[in-house]
Amino acid sequence: MTSAPPLIAFQHVSKSFDGRAIKAVDDVSLDVTEGEFLAIVGGSGSGKTTLMRLVNRLIAPNSGKIIIASEDVAQVDPIELRRRIGYVFQSGGLFPHMSIADNIGITPRLLGTPPREIAARVDELLDLVRLDRTQHRDRLPHELSGGQRQRVGVARALAAKPRIVLMDEPFGALDPLTRDALGDDYRALHRGLGLTTIMITHDMTEAILLADRIAVMRSGKLLAEGTPTELSESTDPYVGELLGTPRRQAERLQMLLPKDDAARSSAP
Amino acid sequence: MSLFSDPRWSDALGHLPDYLGNHVRVSLAALALGLIMSLPLAIVARHRPVLRGALLGLASIVQTVPGLALLALFYPLLLALAALSLQYLGASFSAFGFLPAVLALALYSMLPVLRNTITGLNGVDPALTEAAQGVGMTPRQSLTMVELPLALPVIMAGIRTSAVWVIGTATLSTPIGQTSLGNYIFAGLQTQNWVLVIFGCVAAAVLALAVDQLLALIETGIRLRSRVRTAIGVLGIAALVIATLAPSFAHSGTRIVVGAKTFTEQYILAALMSQRLQAVGLPATTRQGLGSSVIYDALASGDIDVYIDYSGTLWANQFHRSEILPREQLLTELKTTLAKANITLFGELGFANAYAIVMPRAKAQALGIKTAADLAALSGNMTIAGDYEFFSRPEWAGLKTAYGLSFKTQRTMQPDFMYAAVASGEVDVIAGYTSDGLIAKYDLVVLDDPQHAIPPYDAIMLLAPKRAGDETLRAALQPLLGRIDLPLMREANLRAAGNDATSSPESVARWMWEKIGKK
Fold first, then answer.
1. Residue B146: closest CA among chain A residues belongs to which residue?
2. Angle at the Cα of A80 (from A76 to A82), degrees rounded to 5?
3. N-terminal to C-terminal alpha carbon distance within chain B
4. In this complex, is the C-beta atom of B133 within 8 Å of any C-beta atom belonging to chain A?
5. Which residue of A26, B89, B254, B378 could cross-link A220, Cys pair, CB 3.0 to 4.6 Å?
6. pLDDT value for B6
């Protein structure tokens, strides 16, 4: 595909839990180029979450290697590794006893950044994720809506200026409108900041709309990968099945809302 | 209301700074020690099911041991440790009072803190601990920045529970020599002074509630991030500690401590001795409500300076001698035995307080019972009551074999209730005390012991090793020796069993001194 060296490379990675015979991840090899937005799509139990958690060593593989920027992650201090990789958790994962500002500034604080700099960075990030500074900074997570919380989650992931952001079904629990807005906003951030993003989702439509490239997982194995166009040419029946839903949705939407659809596609 | 104009209220109030101060000190020290042990243990054990089970099991077992027994067990344990430390390290410590009380109460406080800390920490949403890991926290940072703050309400609830438990249970540290609000309760129970009992209970309850509320204030302060609330709570606890430390620094000098066991006569005699010592300008205090075996060891190790014991009690219980000697010979033998422990048998007071079988005069006459031997044939249909120790004492075994006694049932009772119980026919006979004033009050009769199955129980004054050569002390207490006969002691005991303002041990002791002076 691309000739540039990959920023993240999975090399024959396998992982099984508690000595069970079934492999959660089974001999997966996959490259992610710098600046790329990769979506990993699969059903529950497909191994997609396990695959992503191997990147920042929340878990360790049984065999195979994960290389980030030409470095084997097994050789890197896991704490230090996690602090340089942004992580957006399913439904936020915000600490309920910390203010929004403290949540966003947590990784810089762990890195020993002076409080004044952290405060400035928090304000900058609130602007970036389009939350009002004065209104949100000192509130507690439970006082925010789901969408606002997930914006804070994104801000927290970006706080220590990572090159890589991992996202675990970040928009799954949001209503469709919020989800759409947040997805677009994140996509813009990804491009603007030159991030490399891996996002897990079970929703093929979301993957197609946001990602540059899609990897399809099933039963621990990497079934297919490529751009949406490349995937649509796949002969694999499961990939076809996954693409069926967005196709049907698109047809039906085009039929029912031709005007709206036209307006949308002409938008910048 | 007359209840509140009773002078006993102000009497009780006078002791409050001392009792309350000691109570707060021992409770808070125990609570602090308990926390220092429980919190790290809980943190270590939370992810280790085997250790967790063992710890919680152990703490639950401790909890099932009655508080009084747990406290009492620590005394001999520490005494042995103190002896070992003296032998090998050349330094000893006092196994009396504060230390055993703090250790036992600290153990007692552990269960709620352990359980709530483990529950609280394990109840933290796994998504949040994973998030903590994901943002780059070390396990320690995750614990201090995320898990502990989130578990705090549950942990604080545990701490509050154990604070209330400890403050309540600390009232039981009186018998092992730790002054506490329990002094009111034990003294009141022994002298049937209900004003004192109520005063002690209310004071302990108020203290428990106050500490609970201060802890609650700290908890909500932390939760709502209100510095003011937290500060008020912390300051309140700190104020309690400082207020109770102040008086202890003031009188940590060379006071003479007069010991008293757990019954009325002892309270009166201790008050009498204190008054004599104070009269010659010696600073004296009393340590009341000490258990029979605790008090002897406390004297031997110098934690108390003087107390009254009974020859037969020491002979049988302390030195485990079973032969019955004539009175004079017993005293001589006892004197040499005590001297080996450097304890001075200063002298006899002049009366004996022996165990004796006691029953209503009318009933004894009707049944033709004069001696314990006459009782043997009838005992199979009778009920006997004794105090807490009587039925496990060698005298009881001696009595049974000497006269072939075998009662239908035997009951254990608070001594002051026994007499009323036998007078009312609730029980048929009791193992009473010959010097008890209630014998006359209820018109009871003491049965003869022709075979001398019960050894003599002369009241004797014992001096601690360090007071053996204290001439001022000896001169002050000398006038009491040989001057208190059985009728005087009985009357004094009867007066103290009354329930009015002149029945406090102190006023009865003053009355006794007047009588002694006139003799």
1. A95
2. 100
3. 41
4. yes
5. A26
6. 63
Q: Strand order of the sheet with strand A8-16?
A: A23-32, A8-16, A63-68, A71-72
Interface contact flag, B134 A56, Cβ < 8 Å: yes
If you average pLDDT over residues A247-256, what whole number do you get?
85
Cβ-contact A196, A7 below 8 angstroms: yes
Rounded to the nearest integer, the mean pLDDT of chain B is 86
pLDDT above 70 covers what percent of chain B?
94
Residues of chain B with C-beta less than 8 angstroms from the C-beta of A54: none
Question: If you average pLDDT over each of A179-183, B111-115, B229-233, which comes out highest?
Answer: B111-115
Contact status of B132 with chain A (Cβ, < 8 Å): yes
Residue B384 phi, psi dihedral angles, 5° rounding: -115, 145
The beta-carbon neighbor of B138 closest among A79, A87, A94 is A79
Contact flag A89-B149 (C-beta cutoff 8 Å): no
* Per-residue pLDDT at A215 exceeds 90: yes
CB contact under 8 A, A82 and B136: yes
Edge-to-edge order in the sheet of strand B355-360: B409-412, B383-386, B429-433, B355-360, B444-446
Instruction: Return d(Cα B167, Cα B300) in angstroms, integer.
Output: 30
Q: Do the strands B409-412 and B444-446 form a parallel or antiparallel pair, or are they unpaired?
A: unpaired
Question: Given CB atoms, is A189 within the 8 Å cutoff of chain B?
Answer: no
pLDDT at B249 over 50: no
Report in angstroms the alpha-carbon separations of B74 from A70, B69, B96. Answer: 64, 9, 9
Q: Tell me which residue of B450, B440, B451 sits closest to B494, measured CA to CA.
A: B440
pLDDT at B166: 93
* DSSP string for A61-128: -SEEEEEETTEEGGGS-HHHHHHTEEEEBTTB---TTS-HHHHHTHHHHHTT--HHHHHHHHHHHHHH
Contact B135 A58 (CB under 8 A): no
Query: Which residue of A80, A97, A139, A166 to mutate against B (max B Cβ within 10 Å)?
Result: A97
Q: Which long-range contacts (CB under 8 A, 24 or more apart) does B394-402 make?
A: B394/B316, B394/B317, B394/B322, B395/B312, B395/B316, B395/B355, B395/B453, B395/B454, B395/B455, B396/B431, B398/B322, B398/B324, B398/B453, B398/B454, B399/B357, B399/B372, B399/B449, B399/B453, B399/B454, B401/B453, B402/B372, B402/B451, B402/B453
pLDDT in tens, B121-179: 999 999 999 999 999 999 999 999 999 999 998 999 999 999 999 999 999 888 887 88
pLDDT at residue B291 in the model? 78
Listed residue (B144, B150, B287) closest to A109, CA to CA: B144
ipTM value:
0.87
Contact criterion met (CB < 8 Å) for A89 and B141: no
Residues in B touching A90 (Cβ below 8 Å) = 127
pLDDT at B184: 87
Report yes or no: A139 at the B interface, CB cutoff 8 Å: no
How far apart, in whole angstroms, are the C-alpha atoms of residue A197 and residue A36?
6
Question: A158 with A150: CB under 8 angstroms?
Answer: no
- Check: CB of residue A83 under 8 Å from CB of residue A160: yes
> Do B146 and B132 touch, CB atoms closer than 8 A?
yes
With beta carbons under 8 A apart, name residues in chain B contacting A110: 135-137, 141
Nearest-angstrom CA–CA distance, A10 and B302 = 77
Q: Could you report the per-residue pLDDT of A141-182, keeping only the tens digit for each?
A: 999 988 899 999 999 999 999 999 999 988 877 888 888 888
Q: How confident is the model at residue A267 (pLDDT cuts 50, 70, 90)?
A: very low
Q: Cβ of B134 and A87 within 8 Å? A: yes
Residue with the larger pLDDT of the pair A85 and B282: A85
